[in-house]
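Tokens as discussed.
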């Protein structure tokens, strides 16, 4: 859809599956796993804005995923397990590209905000006529800033792409998370500042052969 020089694209992706799960040593088991996932995305793009040398785009998305794992016979986990897990992710991203043709390079600025929630519900108490045990609501906020430069040299046969990425992550687990009967020693609240610089190089040797190399530190 075009609206006031903006191109709007709305998409929705739904996925579902229900399958059996192999037991130990790939032996058959009665365990089952069901997954439902839906992702809806709205993308807005406008070339030549706010300047003739720039492109601007915004993306908004929401994803929902539900997993149901049923192993009441304990054939995989060593004990009975029947749990539902639900996660939500909201995100907003803006991307500005600046094309410097006279200098044979282009700059990209990215800003992204992401908020995630996760909760597991233990349904085993229902077998005994008790309410299901709702686990804590686990939350995570993520702010990302990224700057990338693409430099083209030697008649565009050599491309050099330095990238600097910064992330601020704030996690609130609500309670000590656990895996089956094992409690994980993780702080209830956690904040991190993450820096991930990287460099990519692509060299065009012939019309059919490219050589690529990448180096970086990722967190």
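Sequence:
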């Amino acid at each position: 859809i075009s609206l006031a020089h903006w191109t709007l694209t709305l998409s929705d992706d739904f996925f579902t599956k229900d399958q059996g799960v192999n037991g130990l040593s790939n032996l058959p088991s009665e365990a089952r796993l069901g997954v439902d996932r839906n992702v809806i995305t709205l993308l807005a793009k406008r070339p030549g804005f706010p300047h003739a040398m720039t492109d601007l785009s915004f993306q908004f998305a929401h994803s929902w995923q539900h997993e149901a794992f049923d192993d009441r016979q304990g054939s995989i986990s060593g004990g009975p397990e029947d749990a539902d897990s639900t996660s939500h992710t909201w995100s907003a991203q803006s991307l500005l590209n600046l094309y410097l043709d006279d200098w044979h390079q282009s700059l990209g600025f990215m800003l992204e905000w992401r908020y995630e929630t996760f909760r597991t519900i233990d349904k085993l108490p229902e077998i005994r006529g008790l309410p299901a045990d709702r686990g804590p609501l686990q939350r995570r906020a993520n702010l990302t800033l990224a700057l990338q430069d693409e430099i083209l040299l030697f008649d565009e046969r050599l491309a050099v792409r330095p990238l600097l990425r910064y992330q601020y992550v704030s996690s609130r687990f609500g309670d000590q998370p656990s895996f089956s009967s094992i409690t994980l020693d993780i702080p209830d609240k956690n904040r991190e500042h993450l820096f991930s610089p990287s460099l990519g190089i692509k060299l065009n040797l012939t019309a059919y052969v490219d050589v690529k190399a990448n180096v970086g530190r990722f967190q």
